[in-house]
Amino acid sequence: MNAPFAPTRSSVRTVDLADPGEVDRLEGFVARHPQGTPFHRPAWFVSVARATRNKAYALVQERHGEIVAFLPVDAIHSPVFGRVLASTGFAVGGGLLTCEGAEPEAMFAAVEELARRVSCPSIELRGGLLPDEANGWALKTESHCNFAKPLAGDDDAQLVSIPRKQRAEVRKSLANDLTVEVGTAESDRAAHYAVFCESYRNLGTPVFPRALLDSVIDGFGKDADILTVRHQGRAVASVISVYHGGAVMPYWGGGTWDARRLRANDRMYYELMLHARRRGCTTFDFGRSKTGSGAYHFKRNWGFEPEPLTYATWTQPGTAAREADPTSAKLSLQIAVWQRLPLSVANRLGPLIARGIG
């Protein structure tokens, strides 16, 4: 009589991100996975950790030597906001990716154990397969929405696809003396960062260190670029976009005070739609915005419909939940103070604070 066959169980381990072969394996898994996002790629979560002096981790579950589950996380430390494991850091997406045969609960247990080991009392999963509301996990739904829609077939159709009121703004921008450049050279990066710094100060937000933006551009290579709108030679609006799975995602962008008068932001996004289609993209992913915010309504004006997002958070028993909501009374006051800072002061202090926002 033959002995009964013992089913092979999967195993969970932490990947050595210093091993180029392991990194390539993760990049391949994300590229093949239908729910993979730019924020699952090592080009993102390893790059942002390195640039902000935080720490990146990758948990994988394997069966018969094949990856069946993957969870990237960044351990982010801030003297203002505390410590958190985020999937993934400085991103609007991430979370657990699974295939057939995966055991999600083992992955959630592993990330909880990792959080305790690296002294992070909180975990944030910003997408992917989410845990049940048990064992300290909480689900947050509809606080943010994502906006994405297909690109049109040609330039004229793209303009017509924009709702009438917003289309009128784009037409005004096309009549203004604006020029458009796309690239990743030092001149493109410097122009973008100057605009980005001013835009973030005006919003009351500490600006990210330039090393963070450069690191992502370098990590993504041909899958990232910078589109800049200039008026009389001066950059007035600029955006860094990443490309993944046939979609373009404008991510780090902004405009100067003059950009509004010149409709430079309207020109920037319209030109990006045209540029992305010429690159072979079929989808424009406008990213997430807080429900009801100005950015939320701006994207709706472009004809994008909101898709509510659900995030999961875990707080170690006996510790306080992390507070990083800009609409809270405490942070709203800090934002108001930041908006009044001279630009030179904001640019010096911002990167020191922003590297811990995550």
Automatic annotation (TrEMBL):
Segments forming domain BioF2-like acetyltransferase: 167-300
Domain of life: Bacteria
A Pfam cross-reference name: Acetyltransf_6
Name the record gives this protein: FemAB family PEP-CTERM system-associated protein
